[in-house]
Structures are given as C-alpha cells and as structure tokens.
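Internal tracking record. Fields below are filled automatically when a chain is submitted to the structure queue. Please do not edit lines marked as system-generated. If the sequence contains nonstandard residues, flag them in the REMARKS field before resubmitting.
Queue: standard
Priority: normal
Entity type: single polypeptide chain
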Amino acid sequence: MRQASRYLVVALVSLLAALATLWISQKLHAGRPEESRIHVLLHRELDLDGEQRRRIDALEQGFEAQRSRLEGELLAANADLARAIEHEHGYGPEVEKAVDRSHVAMGELQKATLRHVFAMRAVLRPDQAARFDKGVAEALTTAPQD
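SYSTEM-GENERATED OUTPUT FOLLOWS
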C-alpha cells in the first residue's frame, strides 16, 4: 500500500506540473486579458518599427489556434488522469497511461510555446533581442503574483 501511495503522489505531482506548464505558456503568450510581462516588453518597451509589429502580430495570431488546441489536449489529458486516479485509487496501468499522455501534451505545449517565442525573437534587432531574452528569463524565473 505504501508503494501505491507513492505512485499516487507522483501522479498528483505530474498533474501539478501540467498545470504549471499551462500557466507558463499563458504568461509567455501575448494577447491575454491580463497582459504578460513579455507582451508589455514586446509591444511597449522595445520600440518596434511598423514591419516588426506587423510580423509579430501575424506570429501571435498564428500561434493562438495552436496554443488553444494544445492547451485543450493538456486539459483533456489531465481529465483522463483525474478519472484514472479516481478509478484505480493507486498507480495502476490507467494512471500510468494518463500520466504519459499528460507528459506528451505538456511537452508539445512547451515546445510550441518556445518555438513561438524564438520566432518572435527572430523579428527583433540584436539590441531588442538582448532585452527580450532578459524578459523571457525573468518571466520563467519569477514567482506568480496572484
């Protein structure tokens, strides 16, 4: 029974990690109702020229559908995990499969978010990119302010 409890804790930690990934992607993604630090930096502090604004806006619009789809997959994977935990009450094959699905969805969301961040970075001049890099690092290492 002790081992089952340990596996349940691992499953719950995985669920929390998935939710943290969602939070990070939301903080990095521009266009949220609550503006992220990255959005403010990009659109207000880097003095983008018209062409840069146009290109970044296009990247943001293109990423929105992909991000929504991937977040939906992650939420569905987490729902599967919750059902498996409720059904098995321990770390059984259903929980393991759901954890694996959650990890795949989380990883795909992280990869897509990072590709988006790097695509936006590629639009910037070197001086802007250095400031952007610093802002991204701060966004990833600063605790949430809820």
